[in-house]
């Protein structure tokens, strides 16, 4: 017997014959923001690097351009100061290494230009119009209701989500 047929042949409730079906009832659950409640668990630690990056967004986005430019100038200075011929030839390992380094420096510069051209969109919170309410169907177990409340508190705390509707 195949696995799919085996699963289909098992009744969900052994007390109900397999030919009978239970009527389906729609269950509604609504949860909305509650100003008295809130997250009561441990608060996350501050992330110093992430905070610094978010506060200095423009400098971080332009950093690959500066690193690539300095790398490119360093390779060209090394090439001229070491007395190697300015023409790159494939016979010298120094020439091959310089070509790879120049390629990486240019890649850094181009990555910095892409980072500067792409900006995240700012999302604004739109306050909902209506009455705040918290309705949970009475047939839902307390464990499920507490999970729904936790999901709502998490979503409303860390996102711009201001309504939660679950069927």
Tell me what you see in this structure.
The chain has 167 residues and is mainly α. It has a domain of 70 residues. The protein is 49% helix and 5% strand. The chain is built from five helices and three strands, in the order αβαααβαβ. Strands 2-1-3 form a three-stranded antiparallel sheet, with helices on one face. α3 runs antiparallel to α4. The longest helix has 25 residues.
Secondary structure tally: strands = 3
Order of H and E elements: HEHHHEHE
Radius of gyration (Å) = 31 Å
How far is the N terminus from the C terminus? 36 Å
Task: Work out the strand percent.
Answer: under 5%
Principal-axis shape equals rod-shaped
Average of per-residue pLDDT values? 75
In helices, the fraction of residues equals 40-55%
Main sheet overview: 3 strands, antiparallel
Note the total helix count: 5
> Residue ranges: pLDDT <50 for 5 or more in a row?
1-14
Structural class: mainly alpha
Major β-sheet strand ordering: 2-1-3
Topology at a glance:
Elements (H helix, E strand, L loop, with lengths): L2 H7 L19 E3 L16 H8 L1 H25 L11 H25 L17 E2 L5 H17 L5 E3 L1
Antiparallel strand pairs: 1-2, 1-3
Brief synopsis:
The chain is 49% helix and 5% strand. With 167 residues, it is mostly helical.
Key words describing this protein structure:
167 residues, mainly alpha, 49% helix, 5% strand, rod-shaped, disordered N terminus
């Amino acid at each position: 017997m195949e696995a799919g047929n085996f699963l289909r042949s098992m009744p969900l409730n052994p007390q109900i014959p397999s030919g009978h079906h239970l009527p389906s009832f729609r269950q509604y659950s609504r949860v909305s923001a509650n100003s008295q409640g809130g997250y009561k668990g441990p608060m996350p630690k501050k992330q110093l690097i992430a905070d610094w990056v978010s506060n200095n967004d423009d400098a971080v986005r332009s950093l690959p351009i500066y690193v690539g430019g300095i790398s490119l100038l360093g390779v060209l200075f090394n090439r001229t100061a070491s007395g190697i011929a300015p023409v790159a030839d494939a016979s010298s390992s120094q020439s091959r290494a310089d070509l790879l380094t120049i390629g990486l420096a240019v890649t850094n510069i181009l990555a910095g230009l892409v980072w500067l051209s792409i900006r995240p969109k700012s999302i604004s919170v739109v306050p909902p119009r209506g009455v705040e309410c918290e309705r949970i169907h009475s047939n839902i177990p307390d464990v499920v209701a507490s999970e729904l409340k936790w999901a709502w508190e998490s979503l409303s705390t860390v996102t711009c989500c201001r309504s939660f509707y679950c069927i």
